[in-house]
Structures are given as C-alpha cells and as structure tokens.
Amino acid sequence: MWKVLTALVVLVLVAWEPGAALPSLGGAVVGGLGTAAALQVGLLVGALVCRVRVSLVVVGVGGELRTWTRPHLRVVVRSVPVVLSVGLTSVRAPVRPRLWAASLVAVLLTVGALATAWFHLDAAFPRGVAVAGLAVVVDSLVPRRGAGVTTPGWFLFALPRLTGRAAAEMDATPMVNEVSDAVAVGELDRAEEIAGRLLAAHPTLLVAIGSHVGVLTMRGRHAEALHTVSQLVGRTDLTPRDMAFVMAQMASSTANALEAGQLPVEIGLGAAHRAIDGAIQLGYPRHRANGTLAQLALVEGDAAKALELGTQAKHSSENGLGRADALATVARAQMLGGDNAAARETLGEAEALAGWAPRVAETSARLNVT
Q1: Residue 312 — pLDDT band, cuts 50, 70, 90?
Q2: Angle subtended at Cα 220 by Cα 215 and Cα 221, rounded to the nearest 5 degrees
C-alpha cells in the first residue's frame, strides 16, 4: 500500500503547483520520515503513560555506532539517523487495553504534531510535509499484522475485536515475559518453573509452547525442543503469521540440534533450510533469520559465510541474549577460519552479556582448549 500512497503523494504535489514541485517533494521526504519517527516517539510516550515496557529502541539505519544492552532493554544507534524503531513488551495486565491506549496516544500525538503543517499549505515545503505526513498516518492506520511488523491501526481497530486463542495469546504475555526475564539473567530453574505453570494452564497457546521451547534450548535439550516444535506443524488453527514463527523456530531448533550433535547432518541440514525458507516466504523478516543461517553455515563448514551472517545477526539482535548468541556464532566462525585471537576478543563481549548461555560457555571451553 505504501507504494500506492507514495505515488499519490508525488502526483498530488506536482499537480498542486508544478512550478514548486522540487521544494514540495523535499518537504514530502522530510514529512514522511518525520511522521514515521513521530509515530515511534508517540509509542514511547504512550508506553510511559500506559505502563508498557519498551524493550528495543533503534535509531537510524546502517552500521552500528553505539549500543546499550540491558536485560530488559536494548538501544542501538546506527550510522544514518533517519528513522526510529521502537519495540514494546506487555508485562502488566490488562494487556490489550494498555497496548490499545499506547497506540492511540502515538497516533494522536503524531496527528497533533502534523497539524501545524496543514495551516501553511500555501508554501511548497510545508505542503509537502503535510501531504506526505498524512499518507504515512493513513498507512499506519490500516490494520496489518505480520511476522515482521504490526501497525498502530491493528492495535486500534483489530486488537479490541480479538477473541479465542488469539486473545488468549495476548493476555498470556505478562507470564511469558516472566519466563523471558528469568532466562535473560540465567535463572533457568525459575524460568522452567514459570514456563511449566504457563504450559499447564494454556497447553495449546503458542506463547506457552514457545516459552517451554526456549527453556529447553537454554538447557541444551535441543532434540526435545525440536520434537515439541515439530508437533505444531500439523495444527489447522494457525495463521500464516503463526506458522512463520513456528517454521523459524523449527529451523533454529534444528540448527541447535545439528550443532550439538543431537541430530544427524544428513537428516537435519536440508530440513532446516526448508524450514527457514518457508518462514521467510510466510513473511518472517530475513534479517531475523541470519543467526540460524549462520549456524547452518558453521555446520556446513563455511567459515566466511558464517562470519558474514553471524555479524549481521549481531547487528540486528533485539536483546542481550540474542546478541551474545550471535557473538558466539561469530567467534566459532573465526575459530573455524583459524583466527583464535579474534575469536577471544569477540567472545569477551559475549561472556560479559551472557557468559552462562550454553553456546557462549561451550565456545569459551573450546577456545580455551585450543
């Protein structure tokens, strides 16, 4: 839809005053980027007002300039600061009203900020800001929810109408995040106890099963995790978005099992690639698949590919544990390439983030042996 809106913005501005097309289109660029950023700033404000946790803030695109990683928050500043991205996590009930209200705050603040430009339509630049900004707001209000993005419009118009399993998945997220919080700091016994209670109470919910799989993975029980995920494939109640996450988790669990020697390479390697390809076809963001693809490259003995993909996974990681895992992959790729000195340097950051994590600890043990 954004392509259609972009074309409409250009046509409207050129037709409005052909002689002022360049300054109005310049204003459109500023208005489009500024409005998109305003929506994200609004989400930050909404999260503060509605007591929703902010788990990720990414400023800009391109290579990393600076990162701050804490157990519950990761902040990334990239080389070209033209966009802003915010990730929210539900940790308090009632979940759905809080997310709805946070999204409403974001939209209202953005519309309020944009209103100023609409009082200056006689000037080319603010006209471009106003028209492009309106297009961004309209696009954001269209309810869309996929494996990679959820629009404010989905929270405002679709979330209140959720019923059945979809609503239960949302409402269970505070308990799911208790598991994630415990895992993030290495409290696996506590995480396992909470995940067990969650699964017992909601045995069919994907978030409950996913929490259980996450604990199994941290325990190094990869074959069991893979078996659990595989049982989801035959379910008929899953949406394409659900299945994208299931296939991505299946690929990850398969890669872990292969790397740990719990699954024969001749059986698992092709299955893992098919699973991740299926996830991407269903809308799973490719950059989130880089960590799994890097692990598979390690299994295949391709150090250069594993290093490239592992580095990309490090840059796109969304939390401290994910970054530590990606760093472990990079270190293993460096070891495979014969550069143990670089691997030790890489592993130092991983150990500082999550030295207890299985892949980090195992990589450290292998590096110390060599």
Answers
A1: very high
A2: 80
Instruction: Please list the residues that pair with 69 across neighbouring strands.
Output: 74
C-alpha to C-alpha distances, 365 to 37, 259, 260, nearest whole angstrom: 44, 15, 14
Is residue 76 within 8 Å of residue 64, measured between CB atoms? yes
Q: Return the SS3 of 208.
A: helix
- Amino acid 91: pLDDT: 85
pLDDT of 2 higher than 80: no
Q: What are phi and psi of 228, to 5 degrees?
A: -65, -45
pLDDT of 1 > 80? The answer is no
Between 3 and 57, name the one with better pLDDT.
Answer: 57
CA–CA separation, 215 and 225 (whole Å): 9
pTM assigned to the model: 0.91
Phi, psi of 285 (to 5 degrees): -60, 130
Angle between helices 188-201 and 173-184 (to 10 degrees): 160
Kindly give the interhelix angle for 240-259 and 206-218, rounded to the nearest 10 degrees: 10
- Determine which helix (DSSP H) or strand (DSSP E) holds 281, and give its type and residue range: helix 265-281
Give the Cα separation of 40 and 46 in Å (integer).
10
Q: Average per-residue pLDDT in the chain?
A: 94
| Pair of tokens at residue 74 | 């990761």
| Residue 228 C-alpha from the chain's centroid | 23
Identify the three-state secondary structure at position 83.
strand
258-270 pLDDT, tens digit each: 999 999 999 999 9
Residue 326: which residues within 8 A CB-CB, separation 6 or more? Answer: 291, 294, 310, 311, 313, 314, 317
Residue 185 in 3-state DSSP?
coil
| Phi, psi values for residue 124, rounded to 5° | -65, -50
Q: From CA 359, how far away is CA 346, in angstroms rounded?
A: 13
Per DSSP, what are the bridge partners of residue 75?
Answer: 57, 68
